[in-house]
Amino acid sequence: MPKALIERVARYHQIASRAGESGQSQVSSAELAEYVGVDATMVRKDMAIIGVGGRPKVGYFVGDLLARLNDVLGLSRRNEAIVIGCGGLGSAIARYPGFARYGLKIVGVFDSDFSKVGQLVGEHRVLPMEKCKSVIEVFGVRIAIITAPGSRAQQLCDWLITRGIVGIWNFAPVDLRVPPNVAVRNENLGIGAAQLIYHVNNRTTPTAPAP
Amino acid sequence: MPKALIERVARYHQIASRAGESGQSQVSSAELAEYVGVDATMVRKDMAIIGVGGRPKVGYFVGDLLARLNDVLGLSRRNEAIVIGCGGLGSAIARYPGFARYGLKIVGVFDSDFSKVGQLVGEHRVLPMEKCKSVIEVFGVRIAIITAPGSRAQQLCDWLITRGIVGIWNFAPVDLRVPPNVAVRNENLGIGAAQLIYHVNNRTTPTAPAP
DNA sequence: TTTTGTGAAAATCTTCACAGCG
DNA sequence: CGCTGTGAAGATTTTCACAAAA
């Protein structure tokens, strides 16, 4: 399974999802290609790989496509998550409304700072770390979103894994190391900034198309 | 210039930067490879491309490496940025301490909601959108960080570009479209979530090494 | 006649194997 | 020796060209 494809599948999902909401019932490979920023041929190849068939002259049916994408991504099942650390980033994420579409449900927000415990963050009451273990067990939580300080993130991560967490979404400014059976996504804003700056400094000056 | 390389260069910078701070004066390709998650050979290839030479038995000098990386990424010059929208995500980003290392300096925080104008977000006073134009001009701002609602993001983006912005870091849950001479980085938390969920559901179960 | 589907070619990226140097 | 440097081989990803279908 092409690794780069997974990068695109999530985008296809977004587009299909949006198209569905706006009442559109089919999308063409050209349309998908446009939004994802690749060639239309590749979209068709991708569709072949994930097992979605289209119809010449019509395109792909949004319903079919979305169903298959949900299946591939695993969004059909409910995906419970907890947020650890409710500083600025943590509380913003805990309140972020856009996760519902992906079946990601935040079931607990934790902080080791007692002055934050008990505060309301969106619809979540901040809980002390002591409660974390039970929440994981009770809800069968598999995903943890870490927004704790970099200095504590790895230690926290290790502990969460012993408690059964198998997916880590890390916003602390360090790259977390995990055993091979655990999925980790290191978001790292600093690296994002560096990449953007690179592209700003090396952006394409608009040139006339080659003859 | 290999596109995938740029993805790694920012990570090399992070590692080198950290190594320097902890007093380490050289790093080996194996060490860099370990952290970035690629083969050591590729690190050496990358170094050759960006023009960093190492020494057998020693590795790469952190000072040389960092200087070159700063140059390649364009972090030597100061990179002014503004933040538009100071909801949860916007204010978290405005206060994020990790950007200094990359020369990214936030010089203004804006919101169109008058009830937020005048509030203090970290060290920044929230300004009304009317002031945005002048701030861009006065500081020569090239980068805008958008955390406004998805519904307004594209319109805002278009306007910013007319005002001279050439780099957009977009946290709204839509993919912004920009002309080819503008750099855009669509961060999109929803898509990040979808990708993590995929990897959680398809993570490698630890198997015995092949015989 | 437009849009999908796909084998073959091209480009890109990654790993291998080993030479070279301190 | 241990680690860098690099040409050649290998794997993957992307594009091209065109057949097929509605």
Please tell me about this protein's structure:
The structure is a homodimer of 211-residue chains. Chain A is an alpha/beta fold. Chain A folds into two domains: 3-73, Arc Repressor Mutant, subunit A; 79-193, NAD(P)-binding Rossmann-like Domain (Rossmann fold). In chain A, 44% of the residues lie in helices and 18% in strands. Chain A is built from eight helices and nine strands. Chain A has helices at 3-21, 29-36, 40-50, 62-73, 88-95, 132-139, 150-162, 189-201, and strands at 26-27, 60-61, 79-84, 104-111, 120-121, 124-128, 143-146, 167-170, 183-186. In chain A, the strands form two sheets. Chain A has a seven-stranded mixed β-sheet with strand order 5-6-4-3-7-8-9. In chain A, helix 1 crosses helix 4. The model of chain A is unreliable at 207-211 (pLDDT under 50). Chains A and B meet through helix 1, helix 5 and helix 8 of A and helix 1, helix 5 and helix 8 of B. The first copy, chain A, binds a DNA duplex (22 and 22 nucleotides) through helix 1 and helix 3.
**Main β-sheet description of chain A:** 7 strands, mixed
CATH architecture of the largest domain in chain A: 3-Layer(aba) Sandwich
Q: Which chains make the largest contact?
A: A-B, 61 and 60 residues
Q: What's the structural domain tally of chain A?
A: 2
| CATH C-level class of the largest domain in chain A | Alpha Beta
State the share of residues found in helices of chain A, binned by percent: 40-55%
Unreliable residue runs of chain A: 207-211
Run of helices and strands of chain A: HEHHEHEHEEEHEHEEH
Count of DSSP H/I helices of chain A: 8
